[in-house]
Predict the 3D structure of the following.
Amino acid sequence: IYFGSMDSVFYAVDIKTGSQLWNYKTSSTIQSKALINKDIVYFKSGNDVFALNKNSGQEIWKSVSDDKEGSAKIDLWDYHSGSAAIYESNIFFGLGNGILKGFDLKSGEIYIEIESKNHSPIKSGLVVEESVLYFGDWDGRIYAHNLELNKQIWMHKTYEKQLYPTFGQINTQLSIYKDLLFFGGRNPEMQVLNKNTGEVQWTYIEKDGGWISGDPLVMNDTLYIGGSDNHEMFAFNADTGEKYWTFEFLNNNFSQALVYNNYLLFTTGDAYNVYGKSPGKGYVYALNRSDGSIVNFTKVGGNIYSTLIEKNGILYLASADGKLYAMDLNKFLFEEPNLKSKGYNSIDITGISPSPFKSSVKITYNVNYNTNVNIRIIDLNEDEIVTLYSGNKTKGEHIATWDGKDNKGNLVPDAYYFVEVNSGIYFKKAIIQKQLADK
């Protein structure tokens, strides 16, 4: 299995033992999928592109750019830099400096260069069909470029006005089904385009907000795609946009679901751990594809924003805690899920009042069935400040109060904190702002 990391190193690992076979050091973080063609593995690091022998890690060729614009993370939620695409004897990479380059697979010679409008960073995954290359940019545009003619066919802007600085970026994989082009992005409106004209064929708007931020997956006429602050996995009729079902999950989804037989598997992570040093909490979910009902879920390591890989019944996933995990998929699917003992859907935080607070704050939460509950105040690094409660709670609404002190009775500094409520492995948190009391 091949993967890059935020430590700027590209790894090859034996999938049976987890032993490292070789690694290759680059000068920038590696945020995109690798692509294998015959005996060569291709990947990008920042605005640089590498081709290595997949067995030995020996360098075949590389393309190093002097232009470092957009080579690093653009903002806190810039988790991915899209994967490459192959067409005939060339491989194509979108770069953070707004240039999309096509290279000869064997020699690395540059075959074509395509510029986005205003050199907007190209962070989407690429897709090629019938000699047309499709990609998206950081300013919310989708492009269709004919590679044979080296000519742009159409360009579509997905919004008229940017509502806030992190709104509208196209940073997901693009996918084609029949004549339809699918993609996610930092937008509560998902648009599905005609691949030939760029015209909108159908849309879905998340009325309560929240990006539809996952990578789309189309299987047997059904589109599966996840969201961020709406905390939902969706299943749509890919042709018409009819919504079949939704499933509410913990935290945020920034990757593609995986179909395995009659099951849908996907991962999530906590997008609000970015303000501290915690790797967050990663979850793996398994649903029934037919109706979106839960089969099982588990917490694994830190945030998981990588797409799952299955090989011979083993599920591989990479986490923000710096570890690669291998799970027995059949055991996960067919074991007794023990959802209540895991705390599934047990708690909801319903209110923080007042916020900001000076002397004390009330935390209102619902318990959906009798269960053990832990309530803690933690800092932005998720280190504990104080435990407010640990024990059994009956079904119903409850209130916890924090007086702004730590476990030793000392007043904590004026700052932002989280209240964390959990039952088993089911964790929820909300932000709390403490400000100094009037003198």
Notes: Residues 212-337 form a domain with the Lipocalin fold (CATH 2.40.128.630).
